[in-house]
Design goal:
Structural class: alpha/beta
Largest sheet: 7 strands, mixed
Family: Belongs to the class-III pyridoxal-phosphate-dependent aminotransferase family.
Protein name: Acetylornithine aminotransferase
GO molecular function, one term: transaminase activity
Keywords: Aminotransferase, Pyridoxal phosphate, Transferase
Number of helices: 14
Cofactor: pyridoxal 5'-phosphate
Bound molecules: 4'-deoxy-4'-aminopyridoxal-5'-phosphate
């Protein structure tokens, strides 16, 4: 205990203040849907390390696959030799791709790096420079990824100039047009696609535009599912002008935003991405991401133009290959469908209740990527106050207060976006009982905050 005390002090002094944190203390163990701290605290984890540990913490089969791999090749470097887990992973990914044309793989470590690689590839393949992204989007922390991130200014303030050649259009979310939440999706999609037409006519000509990058569910921008008609509209524009369509499923992929059938949220739309970006749930905590495209496109890349020391690390690939096997063996998508329905119906019942309903503006999402947005009459007088989590001195929003209460009551949960949104990201194999427990904690927290 005293050693942990010393470590806590060391952390307080020596970890950069640039990191925010929603809990104090030292996480020492994770098991299934729960995590444990040095002082004996136990939390139900509805964050999954931001949508990563989708099969729960320390899934035995995944950890075992990684440990076994450690006794073989840990690192080979992709420019020196292929290794078996790289190939096994491709073998398992091929049949679950949203479209069979996605047959060319490049593995990286993080989502941000995969975003960088996809932009680089698009520029090279088209010979064009400009990139179009979405207002509200989050694609990562590196310079290119930060340039196409439009969800909060805190990620890039005082750090510019960012990568040039980036343009954005409003993602079809009612806030972005200052319209009421009851606005039909078709109107929002029409508005966004109109802005895209305008952008291509006024600011970046199609012949200068390399790619459009979009998330299948707007994640850090508010947990808003991307309407299938919007993705179809983007596809049409890309086809018309020879622009590459990049679909970012870093957070929504691997069953997180599944309708119980496919692993990827884009599947509902029938849209074929030119480049699909994956990460997070793929490795269940082992760092790995992927840039997946068509060989017809990637055959044009020069050998040696892509690479990276740890890209496609053998231990991470072995863990990821096992993740996919577990998805199949443990029928994870069936659980996603059942638990999604359970959580949605509890949250919607709360939204229609007389006492707490008036505080809940919207319950939305897909699969187990669910956002609850609160009503804040005050936000109209204060303007939009970004929810920057735990930054000292930041004005506390209702969503942050509810999240803090949940944590006090034993559940880890996060907010998202500059609006009043709480996000539910439980493990995809979470039990019925734990969803009930998590919802109960949330309900109590909301009740105490509005009291
Ligand atoms: N894209 C999306 C949609 C994300 O949600 C994230 C991470 N939250 C990223 C990219 C960046 O991934 P990473 O943090 O692994 O760099």
């Amino acid at each position: 205990q005293s050693d942990f005390q010393a470590l806590r002090q060391l952390g307080a002094k020596h970890i950069t203040k640039g990191l925010g944190r929603i809990t104090e203390g030292i996480m020492v163990k994770g098991e299934g849907s729960y995590v444990y701290y040095d002082d004996g605290r136990k939390y139900l984890d509805f964050t999954c390390g931001i949508g990563v540990t989708n099969l729960g913490h320390a899934h035995e089969r995944v950890s075992r696959a990684a440990a076994d791999q450690c006794m073989g090749i840990v690192h080979s470097q992709c420019s020196i030799a292929m290794h078996e887990p790289y190939l096994r992973l491709i073998q398992r990914l091929l049949p679950v791709m949203p479209d069979p044309s996605l047959d060319s793989f490049f593995f990286w470590n993080s989502g941000s790096e995969a975003v960088e690689a996809s932009i680089k590839m698009s520029r090279y393949l088209t010979g064009r420079q400009n990139v179009i992204c979405m207002q509200g989007a989050y694609h990562g922390r590196t310079y290119g990824a930060m340039a196409v991130t439009k969800s909060k200014t805190i990620y890039s303030e005082f750090t510019g100039p960012l990568m040039p050649g980036v343009y954005s259009i409003p993602f079809p979310y009612w806030h972005h047009f200052n319209l009421p939440p009851t606005t039909p999706t078709s109107t929002l999609v029409e508005q966004s696609l109109y802005q895209l037409d305008l952008l291509l006519a006024q600011q970046t000509a199609p012949k200068d535009t390399a790619c459009i990058i979009v998330e299948s569910v707007l994640g850090e921008g508010g947990y808003v599912p991307t309407p299938p008609e919007f993705l179809q509209g983007l596809r049409q524009v890309c086809d018309k002008h020879g622009i590459i369509l990049i679909i970012d499923e870093v957070q929504s992929g691997f069953g997180r935003a599944s309708d119980g059938k496919g692993l990827f949220a884009v599947e509902e739309s029938g849209v074929k991405p030119d480049i699909l970006i994956i990460a997070k749930g793929l490795g269940n905590g082992f760092p790995i991401s992927g840039v997946i495209s068509r060989s017809e496109l990637t055959d044009k890349l020069k050998p040696g133009s892509m690479g990276g020391t740890y890209a496609g690390n053998a231990v991470s690939c072995a863990a990821a290959a096992e993740v996919l096997q577990v998805f199949h063996d443990e029928k994870i998508l069936d659980n996603v469908a059942a638990r999604s329905q359970q959580l949605f119906s509890s949250l919607r019942a709360l939204q229609s209740s007389n006492d707490l309903g008036p505080y809940i503006l919207d319950v939305r999402g897909k699969g187990l990527m669910i956002g609850v947005e609160f009503v804040t009459p005050k936000s109209t007088t204060d303007g939009i106050v970004p929810d920057v989590g735990v930054v000292a001195g930041a004005p506390e929003k209702m969503a942050s207060r509810v999240a803090k209460k949940c944590i006090e009551k034993g559940m880890l949960i996060l907010t998202t976006s500059v609006y009043e949104t709480i996000r539910f990201i439980p493990p995809l194999n979470v039990s019925e009982e734990d969803v009930k427990k998590g919802f109960g904690i949330f309900e109590e927290a909301v009740r105490e905050v509005v009291r």
